[in-house]
Request: fold
Amino acid sequence: MSNNKKKKLTPTQQEYQQFANNREVVKRPLLKNCIKAFLVGGIICVIGQLISTFYMYFFKFTEQNVGNPTVATLIFITMLLTGFGVYDRLAQFAGAGSAVPVTGFGNAVISAAIEHRTEGFVLGVGGNIFKLAGPVIVFGVFSAFIVALIKTILIQWGGL
Reply:
């Protein structure tokens, strides 16, 4: 702040300005955070690919129908790791790298359930389990509906 502006401030305002300057947040290491998110997200995706390959090799799934069991397995593993407190530490380290893949969805669901379990199964867990993930599900279903509607209209007009 320039000296001219500082002179116009009252002593209390100057004191507050000094206090605010001392409390300013330190800049985050953006490149380092991006690299960590990229690596952890990539490792999660590699694990997903390994699970897909496992299902295709041992259970004879095809590439078309291996997606659902793979996603369910990833969500289940995430829920176990969240319950044991491991995934939260991973999320602290990786940031968006752990939140963007489907594992972030599993973590959001189980975290809300764990947080509200003391309120009972119906009102606590049942009422709050989709507090964070519910809007994501609704947006996904609504978006899929809109895309399907547009595609149907375009097919009817002979555009596709």
Notes: The chain is about 75% helix and 0% strand.
